[in-house]
Amino acid sequence: MTTPAGTGDLFAAAKDKLAGLIRVPGLGGRGVLLLAGLVALGWISSGIYKVQPDEQGVVLRFGRWIDTTEPGLHYHLPAPIDTVLFPKVTQINEMDLGDTTADGSPAASSREHQMLTGDENIVEADCTVSWQIKNAGQFLFNIAEPKLAVKVAAESALREIIGRTPIQSALSDKRQQIADQTLALAQQLLDTEQAGVRITQVQLQRVEPPSAVIDAFNDVQRARADQERARNEAQAYANDILPRAHGEADRITQEAEAYREQVVDLAQGQAKNFLAVYQSYEQSKDVTAWRLYMNSVDAVLKKASKVIVDSSGKGMAGVVPYLPLSDKAAVKGDKR
């Protein structure tokens, strides 16, 4: 059985072979070793690399992503074992949704930006999405088409948020809220897929009804504005008339209370007077009865005409009319 060559024999064979490959006049065996050492040192030191502040380093080992490095000095195994990519991660990229496709070409149909609102109306919405690379390794190797992924995530998020929002809010005071919620939902979708993308801003460019129905929609808007104006006028009238009505009601109530107190007091006075008369009647029934009779007769005779009868037979058959000086009507009648 043949014995393998020793370590010294292998080293000598390698040195002879290297010397045969590198034939430099005047270079001995030690020179060959020195040159080989310098080459090896240069090869090893080639693994030192620097990542710039606007970059991330993506380390590949035999073409497979193994690490992502931040700005600064780093080391990787020399080529061809490891290689490094340096994508720009601070660059802000913009993408318009609705009017263009992911590669920037015009959209094939306007249906791409037609969306259904929460109250089942159709609107056309366009927005601009600003994004940058968050993790270069994920961006390069987890998603086949990162730009398309950003577009799909942003469109899906926008449709979802518009679908929760009434059309009046989408067209007026909720635009910024829609943009913020779209950003948050799109970022959540991308993070779930580990796309390595950070969405920095979503800006709504246009939210309006489709052009085919915009005239009818404007008519509805004007009708709603008239309705709101009429409601405001009615509310203003109510605010004016109600306090006055309450004041009038309070006045009538107070007058009724005063009248009630007056009637009660009068009734109580009459009752007390009756009781006083009754007590007098109990003490002296004949006198009280005569006084009441005379009072009644006096009250009746005040309204009756008076005639004086002369029993002596003198004058006009003994009948003399009574004409008081204060009776002006009688005086005037006499003149006639």
TrEMBL record:
Database matches in SMART domains: PHB (SM00244)
Single Gene Ontology MF annotation: peptidase activity
Name of the protein: Modulator of FtsH protease HflK
Domain Band span(s) in chain numbering: 46-221
GO annotation, biological process: proteolysis
Family note: Belongs to the band 7/mec-2 family. HflK subfamily.
GO cellular component: membrane
Key words, A-Z: Hydrolase, Protease
Keyword Hydrolase found: yes
Keyword Membrane: no
